[in-house]
Each structure stands twice: as C-alpha cells, then as structure tokens.
Input
Amino acid sequence: MIELPQPFFLKALAAGIGLAIIAAPLGCVIVWRRMAYVGETLAQSSLLGVALGIALGVDLTLAVVLAAVATAFILIGFGRQKLLALDSVLGLMHHAALALGFVAIAMLKGPSIDLMSYLFGDVFAVTNIDLLWVYAGGAVVSALMLQLWRPLVRLSLHEDLATAEGIDPGLPRALFDILLAITIAISMKIVGILLVMAFLIVPAVAARPLASTPERMAVIAAAIAVVSVIAGLFLSLYTDAPGGPSIVLAMCACAVISLMVMSRRAG
Amino acid sequence: MSEVHTHHDHHHSHPHAHGEACGCGHPHDTPGNLPHDASALVSARALTFRRHGRSILSNINLDVHAREIVTLIGPNGAGKTTLVKLILGIEKPDSGQVVLPVSTRIGYVPQRFDIDRAMPMTVARFLALGLSVSNEAVLSALRDSGVERCALQQLSHLSGGETQRVLIARALLRNPNLLVLDEPARGVDFVGEADLYDLIGRIRDARGLGVLLISHDLHVVMAKSDRVICLNGHVCCSGQPETVAQHAEYARLFGPKEAQTLGVYLHHHDHEHDISGVPHPSHDLQRGGKQ
Output
C-alpha cells in the first residue's frame, strides 16, 4: 500500500536536503583543516543558546545562531593569541559550553523541556520558520562560501605556502568559523547537537576517495548527504527510528562502503 | 657570562633560552649596526623572534644575492624554519627588519610533509593555483624539474622525491629571482638527495636566481653552497663552506665526528655543554670574554 507523503515528512525532506547541500562544502573544509574539535565546540555552545532563547522568549534558532556565532568570535580571538594552544582552549570550552547549557536549561522555570530533541534533533517537527532559516540562512552561507572557496582551498592545502603567496589567512579563517557556527545552529533542529558534526564531516569523508578535485569532493559529499537524508528519513518513517540518527547512520554506511571500495582499489 | 654578550642579557632569566648564553668566544654583531644591503634580493637585519616567552631567534643578519646559494644549517629547534618564515612574511619579527626590494619575487618550496593529503588535488592544478597560466607553461615547469609524467596524478599519490620536484616546479612557475627551500632533501634517499641538489644548482645556473636553502644534513649541501650560515638561535658562524666547517661552533653543533668526516681541522673548544645544553667555559674562555 502506498501512502501519500504527509506534510511533516515533506518539510523534513525539504529541510534535510537543503542542509545537506549547504553543509557539504563546509564539511570538506573541516576535514581538510582538521577542525572537527572547533565544530564540536560550536555545536555544544548551541545548548546554551537554547536556554537563552527560552529564557528571553525569542526564536530558538535565532538564539542558537547568536550563541554559536558568539562562540566563534571567542574561538577566533583565542586563535589569534600564541600563548595557549587552541586545542587546550577547545578542550576546556567545549565541555564548559555543554555543562553550562545543561545547567542553564535545568534552572529554567516553566514547562519541562525535551532535551532529547535538542541533543538528537527533531526533524519531523520542522516548521515553516525552520525552513525559512534553512533556505534563507543557507543561501547566505553558500554565497559567502563560494567567495571564500579559493582562498580556503589554498590555505587548507598548505597554509604557509598560501600565506607566503599573499593570502591573508586571518580573514578567510574567521569568516569560515562564523559560517560554520551559523550552519551548525540551523542544522541543530534536524540532527541535534550531538550529531551535527557527523552530519557535516561524514559525507566529506565518504566523498574523499571518490574525488579528484576539491570541488568534486564537495559535490560528491553533497550528493551522498542528500541520498543519506532521503534514505534516513524513509528508514525513520517506516521503522519509527529517530530521524536525525537515521540520517547520520545512512551517511556512515555510505562512508564505510566508499572506504572499502578505496582500500580494495589500493590493495 | 662574558661582556661580549651584554646585548643578550635580558634573555638570561629564562633557563631554557639556549643560544643566547652561547659563550661562543667570538663577538656577535650588535643589533642595528649593519646597514641593509641594497644589492641583495633579501636583506634581514637584527631579527629577533620570541614565542611563548622563549627566544627563538636573536639578532639575525642575513643577505642573499643573485646567483648565490646560501644554506642555513643548524640542529633541530635552531630556528631555521622560523627564520625562513620571517623572510617570507609568514611571521613578523619582534624586532629587526626584513627588506625585500620591489624587484624580488620569491618562489617558496615548503616542506612537503605539510601538504594536506585529505584534499584531492592533481599536480597540474596544484601548480596553477592562484595563477592564470596556460597548460603548456605548467607542463614546461614540470618538465624542467623532471616530473612531467606526474601532471595528471593526485598530489597524495606522489613519492617523496616527486613531491619535492613538483614543489620546485610550482615555485619556478612563479618566475622567481629568489628561491627559498625548506629542507628539500628531508626523507629523500641519498641518491635522490644528490640529484635534488644537482637540480637546484642547475636551476641557479640557468636562471641566475638566488637560493636560500635550509638543510639538516651536511655533506652534499656544503659542497653545493656558496655560503653557509650556521644557526642555533643566533648566527653561530657563517662564511664559505670550508671556513664554516673549520669553525669550533660548527664542530660543537654537529659533533666532532660529523665535522671530521668532512676532513676538517678542529679548533680547541672554548666551551662545553652539559647534559641540559648549558655551556660551561673551558679553562681558556676568559680570552673570548675580554675582547
């Protein structure tokens, strides 16, 4: 028996596919620059944004975007100083942000909050406003990524070489951190705080063995992410598994297949 | 320490700041007393660089001229790469100046180990990054370095020697008059190493450019260099390879055995280093301190 897709399912598909395409090039840069830890820190600061949003009664996505961008600015500041290694700062901040977020949410008065939906996302509860965030915010992120792409590729490949050839590493790096913060914040609704980095990184990892240029890697990552979103959402629809984790599971399956194909070719 | 080193005294509070307390027994240049060399492709004066409260480089003077191969040697942590980064403008010195005439175009050959292998990238695309050049120019640059066959390969699939040649080709495609190479022979086998220095010598002869080279290993480099600068946080000694090889500082840094394999006459050491690297004067150090 074939059922007509429900509106909630179509909205989930629209949001998931949009995000998959927006996130793919950012995921590639994260893999190249080994920035997963930066992303995790930005993601875990989102919970604090949720708490602030609820406390102040503003749109939650807006609050999360602001919290993540503020965190990005702090990281950019720490990246500029040479006294402390960024890794130690991240190690401190990413746990502090998560702990602070939990404490802040627990201290909020009023109706109880479904923490699970923030940790793992609630893709089937996507609203029209969420869709607007994905597509309007995503358009801005993608347009800026297009501008930043060439310097980011050169800086990622060899930062000293690019710097010696006249690329100022500071601006692209800082802008990328901010774009990443925005993308993570608007992805939170779909896959949640704990899985958002997997949503960004896993398609890029899966695309790497299949790509011969940085651009193709981004396009293949986007294609893998879109297929995974569709597969994950249908899996979720028919098995009642949670949506976000199902999408990430599909992405991981793609990555395992891709890496197996590569190792067979190499061996 | 001795009076010769008074310009280093502000560093002495740090116990690990080896290099300043060198007790070399020869006077070092005082910062700023040497004008920039206007005929040089790059002229650095009194460069000082500190990181994490530690002095990495102090009072470095360096000139590289056209048609000249200048080699920086020194042990690990001597500040060789930092000095190159200051010259390339990747890092800014805490004091001192790097002067590059407007006519200087630097071709930089970085350490190949720093290339990110997580990024798919063909050799040809890598060469053309940031330039608008024809395919023919790219192939010709690869041919000059002997790696034309690699043009369509992935950067991550190249051998060490191939990667090094691709990096050289990439620098030459930018038509430099100063080539800066950071340990080009590191991890390349001995035959490959000799080939590599031959290639660098040929490029210098054919294009008349100046070459600044960092090296870890000594034998081949010394033979190919016009001038050697022995670095260990400061310029220990510099000059023609034969002169440097006979210098006590050189023998101290690389060990008498290494120096002797070059058939070198050794001075008596004017100081020794204990296990933590702190120099202790031999009986005749006072001589150096009272100049």
